[in-house]
């Protein structure tokens, strides 16, 4: 049985070298307040409300593309198996 990748010596060496490069800087508890411009950019824009349905269309198109990709991969795999059997 193979060992998990996270416990391999190569992975642990990479993890220790990347975390030891900046030991004094913590990734947590570091927050900078947003300026007025950033706050204004994050507010909801009433002029863009009519484009809300755009997000749903993009999500649906993405799902359809994912399904079609899966079907194409399955069909190609099936063809390869059929050719290998004959």
TrEMBL record:
Residues 1-22 are annotated as: Disordered. The chain crosses the membrane at residues 60-81. Keywords: Membrane, Transmembrane, Transmembrane helix. GO terms for cellular component: respiratory chain complex II (succinate dehydrogenase). This is Succinate dehydrogenase subunit.
């Amino acid at each position: 049985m193979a060992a998990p990748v996270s416990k391999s010596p190569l992975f642990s060496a990479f993890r220790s070298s990347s975390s030891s490069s900046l030991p004094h800087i913590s990734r947590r508890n570091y927050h900078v307040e947003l300026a007025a411009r950033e706050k204004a950019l994050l507010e909801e824009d009433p002029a863009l409300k009519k484009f809300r349905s755009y997000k749903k269309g993009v999500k649906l198109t993405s799902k359809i593309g994912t399904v079609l990709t899966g079907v194409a991969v399955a069909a190609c795999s099936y063809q390869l198996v059929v050719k290998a059997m004959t």
